[in-house]
Amino acid sequence: MNSYKKNHLETRIKILLADILLNEIENEKVRNASIIDVKMTPDNSTATVLVTFPAYPEQSITSMRGLGTYIRKRIAANLDTKRCPFFKFELDKTMERQKEIDDLFAKIK
Predict the structure, then answer these.
(1) What's the DSSP call for residue 42?
(2) How far apart are alpha carbons 94 and 90 in whole angstroms?
(3) Fewer Cβ neighbours under 10 Å: the N or C end of the chain?
(4) What's 87's domain CATH number?
């Protein structure tokens, strides 16, 4: 799959997932998730979804993983592909890493 199609698929999944979380999920911990990125494996069998939560990230990611089958079915119904990928939900650690880097630079000064 060329990079344009792959990027289009990742974007489409991100939009569908955001819509499902906002309009269909009643669990407030999961519903308030921010989808940071979606990355497909080269064979498009798995989509890694990076998310952040405003509160209780560990509990929220566990709840979101529990909804994985439901989310996959809902996305599959709206996706124009032969197969819908499996979803791997992970917490986005970018802000934590940035803080660690900032702390290291502060020590150097």
Answers:
(1) T
(2) 12
(3) C
(4) 3.30.300.20
Inter-residue contact 44 to 83 (CB < 8 Å): yes
Structural domain for 59, as ranges: 3-108
Rg of the chain (C-alpha set): 16
Looking at residue 72, the DSSP 8-state letter turns out to be H
H-helix or E-strand containing 17? helix 3-23
Distance between CA 73 and CA 67 in Å, rounded?
Answer: 10
State the pTM of this model: 0.83
Residues in contact with 42: Cβ distance below 8 Å, sequence separation at least 6, in sequence order = none
Dihedral over Cα of 15, 16, 18, 23: its sign: positive
Residue type, 58: E
